[in-house]
């Protein structure tokens, strides 16, 4: 969603809540001009600027109330009053509820009285007008509630349109009197009385916060609430200021009238404007009166358990409210506004306006600081977590590296052990092979030696046999021949020249041993 679309949604949401405030304020009582006349205009030229100041005070009261409701999620006036007035909510919550119920009954009674007065201008008896209006209200409350809820916005827009037309026409047609009253600073009462009257207006309008609360759950931030309250201040402030200026222009004649704006319409000689205003004013009375009855029904429908049928229970509550409101309407619209709204306004100054602006502001600031501290702690925790996470990761990497190094060392050690054992096994195998080969060689050498020795023995024996044969031959010759000088030499030479069988096959050592033996034998013979 783009920023422009978001801003449009935010503006529409803020405007809707501001429109609820405007509709609750600019109802039947305001549309008659009776309220503004008795709280502002009759006190003279201060009515030009004082209404705007009072609307700002009401706006501040609503602002702190809506912020408190947003902070704690208390959008019904019962739970809201507990949060606003705690720890003294047991006393102030009761006061607030009494004041709100009085506003409901006075608002409904004022609407019936205004309708009866309007009918009276057309020749209908006031009491008959009260009965007719009361009956219409009751029927619409039971069967036409959805219709009135849907039509309330349209009725508010129509009031705004026709009041704007009447205000402009009324100021233009009597601007001379207005200039005279302002230039002479006309004021029949002291400034203190004027200010006190304006504060009473703020006091009883402050109870209307219960209606605004129920529509403010769409405002999710302080900024949205501020925007909505600012729009409400502009709408209500401009409308009430223009209405007061127009009524001041028709002073003092309009002061005595029950419906001052109707008086001005008649003086303007506008048939269409008079008729249109009369129709719209009656619709405004219906919308305001039924809205007040809805408030009472919503408050008490769960308090009483009988009758068990919810429709019958709502019908019974509506009937009781209508009877009480019709009884109040018999006092007349002016007395309802001056006396009824006046005293409820005094209660509202001390039970709603001051507590909301002062105590509500303190509680909202405390909530904001606590929320900021919590957010700061969370941010610090997150930042600390971000700071610690690299070190933890570093430690984890170091531990992983150490683990890998240890594993590598263990693998190397195990490999070395395996190599060592394999080397040892190899050495053992080689030693075994060497020992086996040595044993085999020894066996072979022994066999060779044995064979050689046997052959040598055979050869020696053969030689000895041959030698003995030679000796026998020599002895025979010696015996045959006479001994001659040099016989020894001849015998030696003969002995040396005698061939020995197998002498070439014998090894040198055997040959040497054989020759040694021959020399020995020869020496023996000699």
Automatic annotation (TrEMBL):
Keyword Hydrolase assigned: no
Transmembrane portions of the chain: 12-31, 43-62, 91-112, 124-143, 155-173, 193-216, 228-251, 271-294, 315-333, 339-360
Name the UniProt record assigns to this protein: Branched-chain amino acid transport system carrier protein
Stored InterPro entries: YkvI-like
PANTHER family (UniProt xref): CONSERVED MEMBRANE PROTEIN, MEMBRANE PROTEIN
Keywords (A to Z) from UniProt: Membrane, Transmembrane, Transmembrane helix
Record field: compositional bias (Basic and acidic residues): 405-419, 443-465
Cross-referenced Gene3D superfamilies: Amino acid/polyamine transporter I (1.20.1740.10)
Presence of keyword Transmembrane: yes
Highest taxon listed in the record's lineage: Bacteria
Region (Disordered): 405-526
């Amino acid at each position: 969603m783009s920023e422009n679309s978001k801003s449009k949604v935010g503006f529409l949401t803020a405007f809707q809540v501001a429109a609820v405030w405007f509709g609750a304020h600019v109802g039947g009582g305001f549309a008659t001009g009776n309220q503004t006349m008795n709280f502002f205009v009759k006190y003279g030229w201060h009515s030009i600027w004082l209404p705007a100041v009072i609307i700002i005070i009401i706006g501040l009261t609503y602002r702190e109330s809506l912020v408190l409701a947003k902070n704690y999620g208390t959008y019904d006036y019962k739970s809201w009053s507990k949060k606003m007035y705690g720890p003294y909510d047991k006393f102030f919550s009761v006061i607030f509820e009494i004041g709100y119920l009085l506003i409901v009954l006075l608002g409904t009674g004022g609407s019936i009285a205004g309708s009866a007065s309007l009918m009276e201008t057309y020749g209908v008896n006031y009491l008959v007008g009260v009965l007719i209006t009361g009956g219409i209200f009751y029927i619409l409350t039971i069967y036409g509630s959805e219709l009135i809820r849907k039509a309330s916005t349209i009725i508010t827009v129509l009031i705004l349109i026709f009041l704007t037309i009447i205000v402009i026409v009324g100021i233009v047609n009597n601007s001379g009197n207005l200039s005279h009253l302002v230039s002479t600073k006309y004021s029949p009462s002291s400034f203190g009385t004027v200010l006190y009257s304006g504060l009473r207006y703020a006091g009883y309008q402050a109870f209307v916060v219960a209606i605004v609360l129920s529509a403010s759950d769409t405002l999710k931030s302080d900024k949205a609430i501020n925007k909505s309250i600012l729009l409400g201040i502009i709408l209500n402030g401009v409308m009430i200021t223009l209405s007061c200026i127009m009524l001041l222009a028709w002073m003092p004649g309009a002061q005595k009238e029950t419906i001052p704006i109707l008086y001005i319409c008649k003086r303007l000689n506008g048939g269409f404007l008079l008729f249109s205003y009369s129709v719209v004013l009656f619709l405004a009375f219906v919308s305001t009166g039924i809205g007040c009855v809805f408030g009472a029904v919503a408050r008490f429908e769960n308090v009483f358990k009988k009758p068990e049928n919810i429709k019958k229970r709502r019908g019974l509550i509506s009937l009781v409210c209508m009877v009480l409101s019709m009884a109040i309407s018999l006092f007349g619209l002016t007395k309802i506004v001056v006396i009824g709204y006046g005293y409820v306004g005094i209660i509202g100054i001390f039970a709603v306006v001051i507590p909301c602006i002062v105590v509500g502001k303190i509680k909202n600031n405390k909530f904001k600081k606590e929320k900021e501290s919590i957010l700061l702690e969370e941010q610090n925790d997150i930042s600390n977590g971000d700071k610690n996470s690299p070190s933890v990761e570093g430690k984890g990497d170091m531990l992983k590296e150490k683990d890998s190094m240890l594993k590598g060392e263990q693998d190397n050690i195990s490999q070395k052990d395996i190599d060592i054992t394999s080397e040892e096994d190899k050495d053992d195998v080689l030693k075994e092979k060497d020992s086996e080969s040595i044993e085999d060689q020894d066996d072979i050498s022994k066999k060779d030696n044995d064979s050689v020795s046997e052959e040598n023995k055979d050869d020696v024996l053969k030689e000895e046999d041959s030698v003995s044969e030679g000796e026998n031959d020599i002895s025979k010759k010696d015996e045959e021949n006479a001994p001659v000088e040099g016989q020894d030499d001849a015998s030696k030479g003969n002995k040396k020249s005698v061939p020995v069988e197998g002498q070439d096959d014998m090894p040198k050592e055997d040959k040497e041993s054989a020759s040694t033996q021959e020399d020995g034998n020869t020496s023996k013979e000699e």
